[in-house]
Amino acid sequence: MLSTWQVTATALNLRVAPQVGSPIVAVMKQGDLCTDTGAPATQAGWLAVAYQGRLGHANAQYLRSVPDAGAMAAGDRPVPTSPPAPAPVPITQPSARQSDLALLHPRFRQAVAGLLASLAQAGAPFRVFESYRTPERQKWLYDQGRTRPGSIVTKAPPWRSMHQYGLAADLVLFIDGQWSWRDSGPLAAHWALLRQHAAAAGLRTLSWEAPHVEWPVSLEDAAGPTLMASGDAAWLDNVEASADRWQQAGHDGAPVLAALQRPGLAPA
Ligand SMILES: [Zn+2]
């Protein structure tokens, strides 16, 4: 599980790099929550966190750890100071696009966090448009332009895209509060930077789908023992649940996940 942190200062800057003076990505308010990105600490006293879909670094002195909600006594729950988030769209609804990093494989998650930070430092305002994608949504997108009206948006049927394994993400420009896929004129340079920085981060890009970055393994290895052994519970539970759900709905194509020796419960 990724740790959750709550802001204790009146305002706390989310910065590109873990140092005072680094460009500010967002200003978090007292009581706001942010999540660990899983990236290792690069600077003592700073944490790499995700806040409202944006990544950056915050001074740990003004963050307090929020215990797991289930383990918390009712009286200990933080009092929300901002309006509650809308109820999440069910994960199986094909139009539901997810953009948080929690369900990505931890190695890939860390690479994406590093990539976003390096792009921000280079002045290219990319954000995660889509991260984990269910097989149900992959089918829905695949059907577009084939059995459903619209233009073709993907070459990959369900389980033939790294998105179903938590090993792909789509990064899109976010300018003046709006997503932009424009790749002509002055914005062309940003997309070139995305390709360069992704390659430097050891990630694969696709010539036919500019926003897409993925972990450079085969689909076979995506469900193989190496990635299984280095995954975390949030990632593994989700891939397993998605494969089960897909099979139980009578569909073909779900991967056979590498057998994993899960550690037993520690004796009390
Ligand atoms: Zn993609």
How would you characterize this protein structure?
The protein is an alpha+beta fold and 268 residues long. It folds into two domains: 73 residues, SH3 Domains (SH3 type barrels); 174 residues, Muramoyl-pentapeptide Carboxypeptidase, domain 2, CATH 3.30.1380.10. 24% of the residues lie in helices and 22% in strands. The strands form three sheets. A five-stranded antiparallel β-sheet has the order 6-5-4-1-7, covered by helices on one side. Strands 8, 9, 10, 11 and 12 form a five-stranded antiparallel β-sheet that branches. The protein has a two-stranded antiparallel sheet with strand order 2-3. Strand 5 and strand 6 form a beta hairpin. The chain is globular, with a radius of gyration of 19 Å. The protein binds zinc ion. The site of zinc ion has 5 residues, from strand 9 and strand 12.
